[in-house]
Amino acid sequence: MNFWANDFLGMAANIATALVSAILLLFNVVSVSGKPETLNIEDFTLVFEDEFDGDSLDRDIWHIHNHKGVRKGGFWTLNNTAVSGGNLTITTEYLPGGEFGPGWYTAGISTADTFSHTYGYYECRCILPKGYGLWSAFWLTNPNAGKVSGSGKNGAELDIFESPFYFLGGKRSYKVTSNIHYNGYELNTRYKNVCIAQLDNNPYENFNTYGLLWTEDEYIFYVNGRETRRTSYGGVSQVPEYLILSCEVDGAAAKPTFGWSGHARTNTDSNDNYKGEFIVDYVRVYDKN
Fold first, then answer.
1. Do 110 and 243 form a contact (C-beta atoms < 8 A)?
2. pLDDT band at 36 (very low <50, low <70, confident <90, very high)
3. Which among 107, 116, 172, 174 has most CB atoms closer than 10 A?
4. Digit-coded pLDDT (tens) for 163-210
5. What does residue 24 show for φ and ψ, rounded to 5 degrees?
6. Is the whole model's pTM more than 0.85, yes or no?
């Protein structure tokens, strides 16, 4: 009974998210090209970095996020991470004989047990995965984000970027979205779409940087060093947060469904050997001097 209830609720949430996203695409898009502001990091000191220069994921830094196994419409496993050529690659693919049975496999990795930080500038340089029904993300969170506390000051989920717009096609897909969540993930949750940034190049073919300057008073979001929007929604988090790099498959209970990024089955309808690759060049964290 609980399984079917979770499945139904997950599908309903996906459809609701898709509707909200469609509305936001009409009213909350910010163009990155032509914006004059650029972030000068000469006044910052590097306090964390992973350049992914080895031949395997550094397990002293990264671990599977939250749990190993079912994650939305697929499964998360470290088997879908690889490091080579100075890049981390998180691969999203359908595996009929996967570790947990047939299904969509990808990964979400975090520094929850190894590195947490308060304030500063957080940046990721990456190429987004091509694919329907999936999205990559670079985000910060704290365990308190999942608790009903009434305030983002106790901890929030800060989505520096998420990439669910490949299904739009052409230059319309050259977008990422930035979001904030706090006060749990059920009916009491508080959510704000900070903005949707329209890039001037193809982020599925080219490296771009996505950043967040987090101060005591506000969050300032950046794409390629250019400010997209700022906010203090919910009360700015005053507690340490850890880093997450992830790919998600729209759906629930390991079953892909239609959502804000489309439907994953569209990938395999035309390509039995489909693989979506989220390629990360580096992750860096700076403190302002």
1. yes
2. low
3. 107
4. 999 999 999 999 999 999 999 998 899 999 999 999 999 999 999 999
5. -65, -30
6. yes
Question: In this predicted model, which residue has the larger pLDDT, 150 or 135?
Answer: 135
CATH of range 2-288; options 2.40.50.140, 2.60.120.200, 3.30.565.10, 3.50.50.60: 2.60.120.200
Q: Where are the domains of the chain?
A: 2-288
- Measure the CA–CA gap between 25 and 167, rounded to whole angstroms: 13
pLDDT for the residue numbered 226: 95
For residues 72 and 255, give the distance between their C-alpha atoms in angstroms, rounded to a whole number. 7
End-to-end CA distance of the chain: 55
* DSSP-assigned letters across all residues of the chain: -HHHHHHHHHHHHHHHHHHHHHHHHHH-EEE-TT------GGGEEEEEEE---SSS--TTT-EESS-SEEETTEEE-GGGEEEETTEEEEEEEEETT-BTBSEEEE-EEE-TTT-EE-SEEEEEEEEPPP-SSEEEEEEEE-GGGGS--S-GGG--EEEEEE---GGG-GGGG-EEEEEEEES-SSTT-EEEEEEEEE-SS-TTTS-EEEEEEE-SS-EEEEETTEEEEEE-TTS---S-EEEEEEEEESEETTEE--BTTB-THHHHHH-TT--EEEEEEEEEEEEE-
